[in-house]
Amino acid sequence: MGAWVMAGVTFREAARKKLLLMALLAGVAFIALFSTGMHFQVKDIHARHVAPLIAREASRTFIMVGLYTIDLLAVVLTALTSVDTLSGEISSGTIQAVATKPVSRRQIFLGKWLGFAAMITVYVALMVGGLVAMARWLSGVGPRNLILGASLIWFECLLILSLTLLFGTAFSTLTNGVLVLGLHGLAFLGGWIEQIGAIAHSPRTVMLGIVSSVIMPSESLWRRAAFEMQSPLVGSLNISPFSNASVPSKAMIGYAAIYLGLAMAFAVRRFGRRDL
Questions:
Q1: How many beta carbons lie within 10 A of that of residue 105, not counting itself?
Q2: What is the 3-state secondary structure (H, E, C) of the chain?
């Protein structure tokens, strides 16, 4: 019960932050921009009497670009809203007001994780649902395997959240943010290196990208989500930024789950032993 109480408190605190409000407003502006762009694209395609197959694939590629943007927005929101949760409270001493209550440190940590996880779930569901609804209304098409793809985006955010809370038990807020975003940036670059290496048939380049995914598997989750959601035709032709040239395996998804679990375990252990 202690963890669930902390989860509720954390969710309400996150909802009151102006950063979350700004993220929601930015999300609304993004979906409005996306819808306007898709409207013009569909209208121009129809005016030129483009073949239905090409029109459908063009719309699906446009949708994938929108989903990629949502993935980036969700990851950044996760890191920025949770980066100060433990590190800032430990630094300011406000964590002592909670830690002295009849609630264990494990419950405090899990409660905070659950609170932010609930916030992330709502955000991803609203953004993905809004984009796909507008896309289907304007173009009549949508992504494949939507639930699976959206779940992988959500999973990526939970991985970022777990790392942010882990680093928050040991480092300052600024250091925490630099570490988390730096690791995700490494994964982002490594993912593109792997893709380009696969297209160019460069095994050593591909291996370099795989190594970066082992260090930080967040981008692998997005690339698997893209593989599941995009059109097989576009992916196989390598004419999309999310081509199927090098697709993370299911084993990599399992590795990411183990990675998240270990991050949680180390975070709980570290927070339990931290001098507050």
A1: 18
A2: CHHHHHHHHHHHHHHHCHHHHHHHHHHHHHHHHHHHHHHHHHHHHHHCCCCHHHHHHHHHHHHHHHHHHHHHHHHHHHHHHHCCHHHHHHHHCCHHHHHCCCCCHHHHHHHHHHHHHHHHHHHHHHHHHHHHHHHHHHHCCCCCCHHHHHHHHHHHHHHHHHHHHHHHCCCCHHHHHHHHHHHHHHHHHHHHHHHHHHHCCCHHHHHHHHHHHHHCCHHHHHHHHHHHHCCHHHHHCCCCCCCCCCCCCHHHHHHHHHHHHHHHHHHHHHHHHCCC
Q: What distances in angstroms separate CA 90 from CA 93, 208, 266, one per listed residue?
A: 5, 37, 17
Condensed to tens digits (0 to 9), the pLDDT of residues 177-204 reads: 899 999 999 999 998 888 888 888 888 9
Q: Which of 76-90, 113-127, 221-235 has the highest mean pLDDT?
A: 113-127
Pairwise CA distance, residues 138 & 39, whole Å: 6
Cα–Cα distance for residue pair 233/61, rounded to 1 Å = 11
Q: CA-CA distance, 62 to 39, in Å (whole number)?
A: 11
Mean pLDDT for the chain? 85
pTM, two decimal places: 0.90
Q: Supply 124's token pair.
A: 């991803």
